[in-house]
Design goal:
This protein has two domains: 272 residues, Aminopeptidase; 154 residues, Glucose Oxidase, domain 1. Helices cover 31% and strands 25% of the residues. The chain has twelve helices and 17 strands. A hairpin with a 2-residue loop joins strand 1 and strand 2. Helix 3 crosses helix 8 and helix 4 packs parallel to helix 8. The chain is elongated, with a radius of gyration of 25 Å. The termini are far apart.
């Protein structure tokens, strides 16, 4: 008897997870056919790609809220499931450089983007930077022009110029074919209205991307004759049309049986990129797959609660809006209106694209990329590993968890807004594929058996976090807000 107790103690100390028959019972409620039923609606043409602030996004919000209600989840936002907030929709009205009667026009000769206030036509000073920033004093109240291929770390240069009082920044892309492709790519994106949480501000900087021909025209010199320290003055005009756009996160709350004040947040973004060039981007994988996973997880946990086997800690199921516009919905929740205090938030499990197989794992769908599990809590990482060994036996791929990963996926989905507030997170991700952000990201390409397995991994992970005696420890806290 004593030996048995000792061995159990050793296993607990090592972070092992013993099989829980109740957890296994309710995990079985997660079914691929239910996932398919939800996704066939949310990723249908009727929902028009669910772009933030549009009819399709609001239809999806209603669908999710109605499902939460059918499960008996609490409506935690003033007795509703909707956390409503306004974004600022911004569309470039007109922008140009002018010398006399001659103009260089936005989207034809350059690209412009900014969160700064606009003032119509104004004279601006432009100074050509050098690679050592030796003339930093001359940057004050000027637009600083950088030759992009000359700098290995352009952001550092921009930061220094901003500190010196620069008013704006100009990126000069030297190869003509590179500039042409950049102009096409950015113009297509920038012609569409952009969304932001805040309005414009006096401190905001302005950014212009142009090529050799336009900068030479501004300075009235051959491009090859331009040198560091050269200055020019030109009339610049940039006007935006701004209007408020209402959107909403959708929240369903399951109150914990023993530690209700401690909350686990399970997230996915339900928005996508809408219609482009007349074609609907259905976003079946991105992130319809994550959204329907949250719905199935909510069903599994509420099924347990209905039999008085619910989690000890509370769980907030939250599908967020505006991820494609810059993680706006999750940022609104964490930075402006955390319905449940972040200091009481135990962990965030975020699911973004889990229904496809990337090229690296072709022929082996039983994998998932895990990102961030060890960034703030080694305990969370160990728990996740042991849950997988106990229940699901998926290949856990940590390729994108590398600090030096050039894709920087850790910073590119909604978990990051929790992580920057030192809430431990796990990001579940299947990797990118050829249909990413294209009209071809459709439901017939989704592997629902794969989603079911990943959903069960998330369920068991959430179950362990919710029912363990002590909450997950944060042992690697850091200030990420300025990253």
């Amino acid at each position: 008897m004593k030996r048995t107790i000792y061995l159990i103690g050793v296993l607990v100390g090592l972070g092992s997870v013993a099989q829980d028959k109740q957890a296994m019972k309710y995990a079985k409620t997660i079914k691929s056919e239910d996932l398919m039923e939800h996704l066939s609606i949310l990723a249908s043409d009727e929902y028009e790609g669910r772009e933030t602030g549009t009819k399709g996004q609001k239809m999806a919000a209603e669908y999710i809220a109605n499902y939460f209600k059918s499960l008996g989840l609490e409506a935690p936002v003033d007795n509703t499931y909707f956390q409503k907030f306004n974004l600022t929709s911004s569309e470039i009205s007109t922008s140009y450089f002018r010398k006399g009667d001659e103009k260089k026009m936005v989207f034809e000769d350059f690209v412009y983007f900014s969160r700064a206030e606009t003032a119509g036509e104004e004279y601006i000073n432009i100074v050509i930077a050098d690679d050592a920033d030796a003339m930093i004093k001359s940057y004050k109240d000027s637009y600083v022009a950088y030759k992009v291929d000359q700098y290995t770390n352009l952001q550092d240069r921009i930061d220094k110029a901003k500190e010196a009082g620069a008013k704006g920044f100009i990126e000069i892309i030297e190869p003509d074919d590179t500039f042409s492709s950049t102009l096409r790519r950015f113009s297509g994106f920038m012609k569409r209205p952009g969304l932001g949480l805040e309005g414009r501000d006096n401190e905001g900087s302005k950014m212009v991307i142009l090529g050799k021909e336009t900068i030479a025209w501004i300075f009235d010199k051959e491009y090859d004759q331009l040198k560091a320290g050269d200055k020019a003055q030109v009339i610049f005009n940039a006007d935006y049309l701004d209007k408020p756009t209402e959107t909403e996160n959708v929240l369903g709350f399951l109150k914990g049986s023993e530690k209700p004040e401690e909350v686990i947040v399970i997230t996915a973004h339900y928005d996508h990129i809408g219609i482009s060039n007349g074609e609907i981007n259905n976003g079946a994988d991105d992130d319809g797959s994550g959204t329907v996973t949250v719905l199935e997880l909510a069903e599994a946990f509420t099924s347990a609660a209905a039999k008085n086997k619910g989690p000890k800690r509370s769980i907030l199921f939250m599908t967020v809006t505006g991820e494609e516009k810059g993680l706006l919905g999750s940022r609104y929740y964490t930075d402006f209106d955390p319905v449940f205090p972040l200091e009481n938030t135990v962990a965030n499990l975020n699911i973004d694209m889990v229904g496809r197989v990337d090229e690296k794992h072709n022929g082996n769908p039983d994998y998932i990329y895990l990102i961030g599990s060890d960034k703030l809590s080694q305990e969370l990482h160990d728990l996740s590993e042991n849950v997988n060994k106990t229940y699901t036996n998926l290949e856990l791929d940590y390729t994108y968890n590398d600090e030096n990963d050039p894709n920087r996926f850790y910073y590119r989905s909604d978990h990051y807004n929790f992580a920057k507030n030192n809430v431990p997170i796990i990001f579940y991700f299947n990797g990118v594929h050829a249909d990413y952000h294209k009209p071809t990201d459709t439901i017939e390409k989704i592997n629902f058996e794969k989603i079911e397995k990943i959903a069960k991994l998330v369920f068991h992970t959430g179950w362990e976090i919710a029912n363990r005696e002590e909450k997950i420890k944060v042992d690697k806290a850091e200030d990420l807000a300025g990253n």
